[in-house]
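Figure 6 in text form: structure in, sequence out.
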């Protein structure tokens, strides 16, 4: 009798295992979610690590499905979807931070350029020993780069605008340091 129950149990187990089906809908949803995140430029730019986790979960999902471990494949599919959605959200957040930082930085550049220009003119008036042609060229470059940053910002190229604005700020800082460390023309 006991052996009979074991055989029945084995037959039922084999039938149950043989009837298990891969989670096709979940796997398709996971592939679609990761594809969407991979094609979201903000997610690619600002959420690379999270996007990599989504890809890894997708790969594990496929490996588990190929090994017929469907519960595990289902879990990895859910993980892939979650990570892909998180990557898109992080991308949006990163873009918003960049826009805010760019707006803030660009809004102050014209004033900083004018202040730096006054510093150079004050040094000129004080007869400090400086290469005024180079300083004037650097100020012209700062104006032009600020124009380009504003154009990038208006065109939605926020990261490029931010990069240009940072270059201008750094250049202005260098000019101001040069002026501050200058000596009068009569001294050595």
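Output sequence:
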């Amino acid at each position: 009798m006991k052996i009979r129950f074991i055989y029945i149990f084995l037959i039922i187990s084999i039938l149950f295992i043989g009837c298990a089906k891969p989670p096709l809908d979940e796997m398709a949803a996971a592939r679609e979610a990761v594809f969407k995140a991979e094609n979201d430029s903000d997610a690619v730019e600002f959420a690379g690590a999270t996007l990599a986790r989504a890809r890894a979960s997708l790969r594990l999902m496929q490996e588990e499905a190929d090994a017929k471990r469907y519960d595990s494949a289902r879990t990895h599919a859910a993980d892939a979807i979650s990570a892909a959605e998180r990557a898109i959200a992080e991308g949006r957040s990163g873009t918003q931070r960049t826009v805010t930082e760019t707006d803030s930085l660009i809004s102050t550049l014209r004033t900083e350029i004018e202040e730096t220009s006054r510093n150079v003119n004050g040094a000129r008036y004080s007869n400090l020993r400086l290469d005024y042609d180079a300083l004037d060229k650097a100020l012209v470059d700062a104006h032009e780069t600020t124009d380009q940053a504003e154009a990038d910002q208006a065109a939605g190229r926020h990261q490029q605008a931010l990069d240009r604005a940072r270059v201008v700020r750094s250049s202005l800082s260098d000019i101001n340091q040069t002026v501050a460390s200058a000596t009068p023309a009569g001294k050595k």
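Caption detail: DSSP finds seven helices and no strands in the chain.
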